[in-house]
Amino acid sequence: MEYYIQFMINGLITGSIYAVVAAGFSLIYNTHKFVHFAHGAVVMVGGYLFHTFFLLEWNIIVAALMAAMVTGGLALGLYQLTYAVFYKKRAGNVILLMASIALLLLINNVLQLFYGAQATVVKAFPVTEGLEFWGAIITPVQIIIIAVSLILLGLLYILMTYTQLGKMMRAVADNDELSLIIGIPRDNVKRFSFFIGSFIGALGGVLVSLQEALVPSRGTYLIIKGFTGAVIGGIESVPASIIGSYLLGFIENISIIYLPSDYKITISFGLLFLFLIFSPGGLYALFFKDRVSK
Amino acid sequence: MYYVLSLLTQIGIYAVIALSFNLALGFTGIINLSHISFLALGAYTTAILYTQFGMSFGVVMVLSGLLSGCVALFLIYACRKLRGDYLALGTLSFHFVIYSFIRNLETITGGTRGLIVDRPAFINDGINFFIMVVGLAVVFTFILARIVRSPFGTLLGAVRDDEKLARALGKDSQLLKVKAIVISAFITGVMGGVLAFFLRYVHPDFFFLYELVTILTIVIIGGLASLRGTLIATFIVLLIPEILRFVALPSSIIGPSRQILYSIILLLILLIHSRGILGKVDLH
Amino acid sequence: MAPILQVAKLAKRFGGNQALAQVSFSAEKSEITAIIGPNGSGKSTLFNLLASTLVKDSGTILIDAKTVTDKSDHILAKEMLSRTFQDTRIFTYLTIRQHMELALSTKDQSLIKSFFARQENNDDAINNALNWVGLEHDLNEMGANLSYGQTKLLTLAMAIAKNHKILLLDEPVAGVNPKLRKKIAKILQKLRSAGETILLIEHDMDFVLSLADKIIVLDLGKVIMEGTPKQILASKNVLKAYLGR
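Output (structure tokens, whole complex):
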């Protein structure tokens, strides 16, 4: 029994990180309707900038927020240089997908040039002994990760539901053309959502850095996990993407009970493939399909 | 001399991989982002069957191609309902699945330790190896050129341009796609075997996103549905990063710089001229 | 002689919407049969069921007294049906010659045969088919470079050239200028005299009345009337359904 609780807690921690990655990714997907794979690399930029600011002995919260701000700004710059140009040329989604894979590798390798391929450790918190809950162990850092991701997702919910900007983003997500007709500054809303998505993603990178050493190529895995979570839940909906990501975290950690831990990655890739084939709209489409269409 | 020979051999191998990729992507319109997994399957089949089971060279080559072809058959069947960017994502995720299996099936593939590959004696020498690669490249290029110029090639173009209309003309578009991707995967599988012999070593990370971007860059720069363009682009794309070698940079910088160069080239060509050098078809 | 096309009690439902209910009609050989009806009357659904691009819920379709409802769309197309589309479709990057070669050939699907085959010169057959529609153009022109009218004629030529028993034409004169409209009407008359069986959907009432031998009126998924143009004109019911008056 204790065994299971430990795996559930581990699943919650992993899921929290995936959820933060997926939230930003899904927000960008919904306002732009293309798959921004480079988001994984953006997440890592957040982690590494946090590392740099932390070494400057900044306050940890300031370092985290600054890292997210700067990452968001950089991401927006890249957006203007690439995606925005593709939009102007009315390029198809396949081109955007290829471009986003190229961007992912570009940022990955720039990080590698700056920080090296070796693992970079951020010692933000002293290593402390874990606390015990019903026989399962959880460290304070892990509690922080869970709490921060919940707060972050809560703030995103408030932003999307109660603010003018959030409502505009949802209108753009709902119907791109129509939103322009009813007088929403569509392009600026898109830019803003890209910034917010990257900002959240960068904070995901900060959370990653609290828990494990940073490696540039980790971004590729993170985006595949975030993407998988989003597809499992339902990429068309930000909340569904978040739920799917927590689910993925649980599935991965529970699978370790039955399979060698290396198979974690096979399981999530396999799930991604199966969902894309059988239900590209994820669980959301499976359960709510009838209500949505026809 | 050894350096030039090895570079030319590499160009020969990549040219064929890219040409067969173009058969699926440019000539048939199948956005198959799992092409590198076919390469990996061929490479590992060869590594295992030749080095560990001691099967003969010819048999190993054919089996490498066949395995890739069979897996491609499964993939295209599984993805038969996906179109456009969802097909791209489905095939990309399949690529990840194959990659993770190769990583995880340690008892068979050696996992992250990789596998050492012995070379048959007759191609142990660099020159002989090069001659073999040139021979294969000529044969495969001839076959592909013949296919795309034949009525069958026209059929593939019809499927690419408008599948519904092709079906209304009585053409079995699904069967045509299967044929195209199986040929593409077979050739790539064989070249995977050649690549394994060339490198004398296989590792899962040789077959990840990086290689996909290299091949994509070659095919897009050369242009969709142009074999000649792909051949020219293979030279350009593989020679450009060689410049970095002469700047005497440490290898820890050369590695990432190469990738940075490729990603920037791919981005620029997509941004500025997505038809490439000799492309006949636009990406949708 | 039995009608070449016999449709009996054909039904199709989309979710809660009964698109077609118990539709029965027939079409005679060497005649032009037109299906008319307002938007949403089920014309397109009927066409897609005939071409087997949709699967029926129930009912039978007989062509030449043989049931065809279990055949998949491309096999049906290969053996008996030629069709055109409402949204004019074209192979963007293929030449006119290649379009026509695709329509004319039946055996080119085999890779091996195709691989060793010599390039055939079938310009005569191609020109013959293009003559039917009066499309005079460089055979090496790409689909992307053709005008709207030219693509309409090219797709019609392909449908004629392809082996078939029945021609299904989906709105042949939609969005077409009056000159081309006249031209297409003439082509269809010529085809009928040559013994072609034509089934068409059309919005243009005058076009249909002047051309068709038989008209079938659909409304809300049901056949509400069937008859010659004269009978249809005389019926107030039809005009009411069709014109909404």
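Residues 2-205 of chain B form one domain.
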